[in-house]
Design brief:
This protein is mainly beta. It has a single domain, classed as Immunoglobulin-like. 11% of the residues lie in helices and 44% in strands. The chain has a 5-stranded mixed beta sheet with strand order 1-5-2-8-9, with no helix packed on it. A 4-stranded antiparallel beta sheet has the order 4-3-6-7, with no helix packed on it. The longest helix is centred in the N-terminal third of the chain and has 15 residues.
């Protein structure tokens, strides 16, 4: 009986984590959820790097939107299965996701490189912002 209860509990916990979404399966953030600062990063230049941010899907992640920030400036809000594609000039940037907690990563952008970020929610750690190799 105890094993059955433990198994049920583990199944419930696994349902609380979010599931990775591929960039090609995501939806772009709607225009009305983008901030005016988004326009700064909407145009590609000859030297810009590309930053792709995708928010996971899943029950736990659907509780609310997550703000996405560059250098502490809000760029937009991501709901589950949404993404943003941004063009940043070479340099150092603070990349952040803010829900109930603020998670920040340092990014050094080099010309013509692509950087991927995944926003997820994990039961044990809460909101997670991680740089990944691809999405």
């Amino acid at each position: 009986m105890n094993r059955v209860l433990i198994l049920c509990f583990l199944i419930l916990l696994s349902g609380c984590s979010t599931s990775m979404v591929k960039y090609t399966d995501s939806r772009p953030v709607p225009v009305d959820e983008r901030e005016t600062a988004y326009k700064k990063y909407a145009q590609q230049s000859e030297k810009s790097g590309i930053v792709i941010v995708v928010r996971d899907s899943g029950f736990m992640g659907s509780i609310g939107d997550v703000d996405f920030l560059i250098n502490n400036e809000k760029i937009g809000e991501l709901s589950t299965k949404e993404s943003m594609k941004l063009y940043l000039e070479p340099g150092r940037y603070s990349i952040s996701a803010k829900g109930s907690h603020l998670r920040t990563k340092l990014l050094i952008v080099e010309p013509n490189n692509t950087y991927y970020f995944r926003i997820s929610i994990v039961m044990e750690r809460g909101l997670v912002l991680e740089q990944v190799v691809s999405l």
